[in-house]
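Entry type: protein chain
Record version: 2
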Amino acid sequence: DPYFPVMPMTRDHSALAGRKSVPLSAKVIAGYDAVIVMTDHTQVDYPLVAQNARLAFDARNVFDGNGIEVAGDRLIKI
């Protein structure tokens, strides 16, 4: 997430503090079991995500109507 390069300390999730965002690349995306889209940022390369995600959960409809297709049954809209 370009807006959270490093996870800050929070009262409820202190174990996550200090985790760093990683650069978005085909190799990084393909290395995860699933991608969850919870925000619709214009800085995110959604076609790159669609082409490389093993499974994509789309809570923001970023893959719908934008000419971005996720092949086969790898897309779940939530």
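Comment: The chain has a mean pLDDT of 88.
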